[in-house]
Amino acid sequence: MTKYTPMMEQYLKIKAQHKDAFLFFRLGDFYEMFFDDAINAARELEITLTKRDAGQKEPIPMCGVPYHSAANYIKNLIEKGYKIAICEQVEDPKTAKGVVKREVVQLITPGTVMESNMLNEHDHNYLASLSHFEDGSYAVVYNDLSIGENSIALIDQGWEAVIHELYNQPVKEIVVASDLPDNLQEDLREKLQVTLSYQDEITFNAEYRDLCDSLNDERLVTAFSRLLNYIQHTQKRSLDHLQPARIIKLDYHLSLDMYSKRNLELTETMLKKGKQGSLLWVLDQTVTAMGSRMLKKWLERPLLNRNLIERRQDIVEGFYHGFMERDSLREILKSVYDLERLAGRVAYGNVNARDLTQLKESLKKIPSVKATLKQFGRENIDDLSDKLTYPESIISILDDSLIEDPPVSIREGSIIKDGYNTTLDSYREASRNGKQWITELEHKEKQETNIKSLKIGYNRVFGYYIEVTKANLHLLPEGRYERKQTLTNAERYITPELKEKERLILEAEEKSVDLEYSLFLEIREQVKEYIPEIQRLADVVSEIDVLQGFAAVSEKNNYTRPRFVDDRLSIKNGRHPVIEEVMKEGTFVPNDILLDQDTDILLITGPNMSGKSTYMRQLALTVIMGQIGCFVPCDEAELTLFDQIFTRIGAADDLVSGQSTFMVEMLEANHAISNATDKSLILLDEIGRGTSTYDGMALAQSIIEYIHDNIHAKTLFSTHYHELTELEDSLEKVKNIHVRAEEYEGNVVFLHQIKEGAADESYGIHVAKLANLPQSLIDRASSILNQLESSEKKEISTEYKTDGQLSFFAEEQSEPAPAEKDIDKSIKKQLKNLDLFDMTPMDAMNELYRLQKEAKK
Ligand code: ADP
Ligand code: MG
Questions:
Q1: Mean pLDDT across the chain, nearest whole number?
Q2: Domain locations in the chain as residue ranges
Q3: Which residue is closest in CA terms to ligand 1's atom 26?
Q4: How far is the CA of 75 from the centre of ligand 1 (A)?
């Protein structure tokens, strides 16, 4: 067996306990890594891999990062989803016998980072835990360590519901029990892209007992304890800012499945994964980081309770009309710092004096926030004002103790005000007196020696000294000074009395820095007492901020307050909130929508690119905006409360996931059908594209029938299968609408206008024209189509509906000979089956070329 040095033995022992983390092993001024850790860290961090000879034949791979710049390297690894165990020397190397004792003092993991440079100020950073139970239920806990927030949900609709719940939450890490089945663990990693951690031991720590008080179900207590145990295990300290777990009642909220969260681009776009272009981007007119985090949370969990929604609406209306007051409210809120994260840092112990000053300044703003709110003269806003209570004594504590503009460091003094502590004052007095004495000494020496350039200076190595230039040395009296240092053109001297004063000054300074530090810790402890109050305050401030933001955006974009009614949804001149924002003003075409007792399903037809998908998403976004309490983009709206939204966006639009397979499409449709109720909204966009025409059409039809007969959910169904429009006749609550397009000088013009009834058939070839396919190719395609159309009319008119549309292709055709008919039929079928939008122009060209050859035969 290889024999290692004692230090390396120590390393290996500690590493064995932290196999899933990089072990940052403190050695003097560096954190060193060894073996595989070193190899992997060198690769990930792009730092040099070296070797250490540790007493055996093979040198050990090693790399290190300086202690002082470790934060950046840690950040880099965390962002890549790794964990880091910080191992420090826990005794003074000078007094240690043998190998210095070392211990892991903290585990930094993606879900537990506290450092502000690793956190996004506009988003939560969640550590989640997942517990599974024998009865098939699951519990999910979310924790944001940076602010101490905890929430918990019980899920008993099976595993899929767990994934849908966790999807799109800002979860970086999930703590599970190690006996969670492997395939489920794999699911979490793959679908949610999170780091998994394990915590099997669950002890019901007395310290955390009251955090669990609100939990009325043993499963919830177990789940929450798993999380708390993991936090304790990683942070190795008690955290006073953790709040009792708030129970998320999933059926109190409009629930969005994973596909809707993604497809509707609520908080990020599918393509770029950024906020820009999302609904959040349009709606976010908050002025505090706390407010923007809360808005994001609201968007992901719209409300179901009409009273709660209407309360929000009422406040938004008040803010909307009080323009001047809202403006001053916004100005004041802008100077309120991130109270939640400040409170988190107070508890965590990494708060500095500057942070506390920010806390104080923020609290000082609260009275004017309260007063401004009162100016709106609206009951619900008055209530908000009354809820803004805050610990006023913090202000005096901090005002009395901290200087105006303290430094970032809390270990170098200059934090505490004069007059706060008499001992500190006496040290400062001593130091000031000493310095005064030195200034006087300098003056006296100058006079006595008659050397004008004589000066007294200070450096860290020699302390205070008297400096005389070489040219003046002859003026110095004999024996009075002791030479200490020689420079090129000066000598430095000391005297016993100068050294005595120096000792007093340095002693006083050292003592005062130490004292300032411990006074600061005391102050911090005092502030800690008020954390729950600060957290409550932060919550109200965030809510005010979100609601004033709703008013601001509603005014800016001309939104109106929707009314909630039962079983009827009517929107006049509705707009897509995001598309209208990115389009030139006034160019978005508004549209109406009506779903009521007589209409459950709207079947939308219209050419490609006409605006079908936009119309569908517009409805979903409007519903969500309504249910978070915001006004909505239209002239007039009656909305009904939906319990769930399901979306399935057609293969042609589903460019991002790349999974345009029929299977995925069917899975998503199945998910909607098996979970929707008669209170749900279903958006099925061009379903059935992923398979051949007849399969797809048959499935699409049976899905519509199933929803119509069994679910009664309000449904928007867009389709390019024109044949489906006949369902209006057989299914009572199906209604056809279409997007209008017109032909103008041989080109199709999209009017983006929704009209009643079914559309003319697809304008595919005209879209090909827009895509700049060669004119000769388009001409030929038009004539093929035309032939097909005319033969179809005669041959199979019962099967296809033609109604003489597409007349702009008209070109007198002689009747084809019988032999040609079969060829025509086959070409027509092939042409029909082409999915132009899934083809590159080159593919289309090749395909048409082949068809043309066949036609010429
Ligand atoms: P479809 O689903 O019918 O193929 P889309 O909904 O994807 O069409 O819309 C195609 C494009 O048309 C959109 O990207 C948008 O720019 C534009 N568009 C859609 N609806 C409207 C509208 N109501 N007003 C103006 N432009 C619109
Ligand atoms: Mg579409």
A1: 87
A2: 6-108, 116-248, 284-391+530-557, 422-525, 563-855
A3: 588
A4: 42
